[in-house]
């Protein structure tokens, strides 16, 4: 029996089972590696603008603290539940280990639709959530970051709430903050930049010229829009994008800077054009050179995987591909080069690590230095994944996750079991 349930958690368990079998991990070791160390559920009551009180449910899951503090985002979304949060924390552990960061994985969230509350209510909810988490987090215990439905402003409220409680400014308690509040240059763009950087690297390896190449981006939030912009600036035509409000398609290529300005002003791509509408359900199977799923989990199922028409699949979202779809992609690996999520979108946590280090040292870097170090770590992890995949004749996801799981397992084995 477990408190964790749901399709996303089941998917994380299934993926780990594949890796554990590949690594021949004894059965009596598996639960210790997989199951989260700690899960917290809190009630977050706030005063609404009309004078009423509403209670929102919040969560935080810390997967393991064997290699250092836990690290992970906090999402505000109506679909958030403890199973989803636990799965995301588990994936973050493998991601941090693969990148060589001194972190375990964590994730948090509040079950709320941010569009349904005012800015004042959002501030109240953000501060109450952090207040409830104070006994369980800290710069050397658990460091939060933004995720779907949260942003730099929410991180600033988190940091201020924690700092007021401790009577001093503690910038290193969260990452993804505004630069004016101890954030790092390049953090907002880091995840999308990393997705585009790795996609371009694979395109070079496959001799796909940037000029004239095409890309499709599903999800036009921070990650998807930044990845689209980076590809656009490289000469790649972004022919289709989609978000929760719909999809747009133009075979000549969309004007990504103009679309980003529209989305920033209106909160989505809705209303950008009446002539370019496209079926959102079909966007993932549009023929293209690069496909970037950058929205939510489990969007590429077996049916979609059978019908993908891309050459490079760069997973910007966490868990966008189901295990059933992975079996199909394994058969199609000569056609489709997969950059799995725990590598492809790891630029965000890499630069969050840089922000944490800079806050601890009170010594800040120029953006060029941040980008250089980010790409260096992504290149190293990419090379390790490709070598492992070729050596063991396994898919890229299996290779990437095996590298991460091996590091976590080795750390737990070395430290032993207390008491």
TrEMBL record:
One of its GO terms (molecular function) is glutamate dehydrogenase (NAD+) activity. The keyword Acetylation does not apply. NAD(+) binds at residues 191, 222. It comes from the Bacteria. Keywords: NAD, Nucleotide-binding, Oxidoreductase. Residues 184-416 form the Glutamate/phenylalanine/leucine/valine/L-tryptophan dehydrogenase C-terminal domain. SMART domains: ELFV_dehydrog (SM00839). The keyword Nucleotide-binding applies. Substrate binds at residues 71, 95, 352. GO terms for biological process: L-glutamate catabolic process. The record marks 147 as: Important for catalysis. Belongs to the Glu/Leu/Phe/Val dehydrogenases family. PANTHER family: GLUTAMATE DEHYDROGENASE, GLUTAMATE DEHYDROGENASE 1, MITOCHONDRIAL. This is Glutamate dehydrogenase.
């Amino acid at each position: 029996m477990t408190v964790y349930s749901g399709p996303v958690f089941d998917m994380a368990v299934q993926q780990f089972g594949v890796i554990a079998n590949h690594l021949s991990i004894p059965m009596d070791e598996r639960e210790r590696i997989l199951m989260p160390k700690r899960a917290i559920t809190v009630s977050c009551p706030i005063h609404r603008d009309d004078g009423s009180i509403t209670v929102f449910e919040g969560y935080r899951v810390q997967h393991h603290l064997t290699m250092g503090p836990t690290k992970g985002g906090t999402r505000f979304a109506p679909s958030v539940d403890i199973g989803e949060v636990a799965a995301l924390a588990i994936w973050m552990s493998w991601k941090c280990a693969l990148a060589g960061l001194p972190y375990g994985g964590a994730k948090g969230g509040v079950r709320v639709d941010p569009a349904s509350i005012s800015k004042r209510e959002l501030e109240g909810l953000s501060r109450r959530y952090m207040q409830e988490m104070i006994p369980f987090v800290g710069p050397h215990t658990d460091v939060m970051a933004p995720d779907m439905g949260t942003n730099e402003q929410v991180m600033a409220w988190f940091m201020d709430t924690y700092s007021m409680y401790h009577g001093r400014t503690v910038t290193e308690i969260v990452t993804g903050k505004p630069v004016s509040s101890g954030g790092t240059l390049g953090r907002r763009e880091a995840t999308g930049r990393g997705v585009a950087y790795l996609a371009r690297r694979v395109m070079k390896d496959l001799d796909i010229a940037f000029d004239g190449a095409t890309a499709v981006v599903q999800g036009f939030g921070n990650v998807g829009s930044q990845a689209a912009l980076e590809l656009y600036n490289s000469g790649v035509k972004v022919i289709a994008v989609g978000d929760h409000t719909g999809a747009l398609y133009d075979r000549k290529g969309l004007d990504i800077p103009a679309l980003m300005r529209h989305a920033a002003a209106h909160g989505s791509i809705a209303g950008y054009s009446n002539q370019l509408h496209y079926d959102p359900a079909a966007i993932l199977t549009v023929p293209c050179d690069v496909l970037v799923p950058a929205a939510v989990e489990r969007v590429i199922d077996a049916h979609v995987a059978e019908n993908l028409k891309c050459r490079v699949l760069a997973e910007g979202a966490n868990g966008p591909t189901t295990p059933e779809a992975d079996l199909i992609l394994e058969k199609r690996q000569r056609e489709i080069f997969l950059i799995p999520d725990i590598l492809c979108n790891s630029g965000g946590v890499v630069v969050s690590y840089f922000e944490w280090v800079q806050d601890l040292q009170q010594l800040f870097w120029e953006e060029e230095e941040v980008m250089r170090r980010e790409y260096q770590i992504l290149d190293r992890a990419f090379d390790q994944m490709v070598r492992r995949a070729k050596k063991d004749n396994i898919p890229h996801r299996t290779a990437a996750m095996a590298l991460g799981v091996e590091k976590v397992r080795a750390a737990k084995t070395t430290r032993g079991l207390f008491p």
